Amino acid sequence: MGNTRDTVQVREAIAEERRELADLLDALPAERWDEPTLCAGWRVREVAAHMSFGFRHPLPKVLAELVRARGSMDRMTDRVARREAASMSKRALAAALRDNAHHPWKPPVGGWPAALGHDVVHGLDIGIALGLVDRRVPEERLRIVLGTASPLGTRFFGAKLDGVRLQADDLDWEYGSGSTVTGSAQDLVVVLFGRKVPPGRLGGTASGRFVADGAIG
């Protein structure tokens, strides 16, 4: 993803993903905003608030929030997501994604592919948990995100993949070594990012490690 053409393609994929997720949020009935997601402890509204956090807050404000959280990034993001989920309307949360489709925000590490991964996985946090079967991430976006898989990244997101080989059953992709766990590419994306999926979506003897017990959330 180092040349200009690749950068343009990834940035356009990011913009398309944000616009589609804004449309998805706009179409959700009000009661579904309070349903749990794959992102542990967060409902749809907290995930939606978190997704646009980097667009709406300049670096000095982010650093101030981090100081208040005593240097804990997890504590900071959770506190801000909960606060803004309570204070922002559903319409405003969706608009924050749509209006910032081309915003140049990127995570501190990973560049544009990581920015796409951030949007894709949080969209799947919502779509998979809510059973939105019509929401399918396009293959070209999934390939970019799957291509970011690394031991450093999986450790950062808490994905425990020791002794496991992930293999997509809907495109040509695999990662790791050991006991094979199969599933759709988008289900394996959320596994890479440390999530657990609902029962019945993965195959393989080690798949139970990545399946939620009971209801999501």
Could you characterize the architecture of this molecule?
This protein is mainly alpha-helical and 217 residues long. Helix content is 51%, strand content 6%. It has a three-stranded mixed sheet with strand order 2-1-3. The longest helix has 24 residues, at 4-27. The termini are far apart. The mean pLDDT is 93.
The percent range for strand residues is: 5-15%
Quaternary organization: single chain
**Anisotropy-based shape:** globular
The averaged pLDDT comes out at 93
End-to-end CA span: 35 Å
Number of strands: 3
How helical, in percent, are the residues?
40-55%
Tell me the structural class: mainly alpha
Q: What letter string, H or E per element, gives the SSE order?
A: HHHHHHHHHEEEH
The strand order across the widest sheet is 2-1-3
Rg, Å, rounded: 17 Å
How many individual helices? 10
The largest pleated sheet is described as: 3 strands, mixed
The low-confidence parts are none
Give the tags.
217 residues, mainly alpha, 3-stranded mixed beta sheet, globular
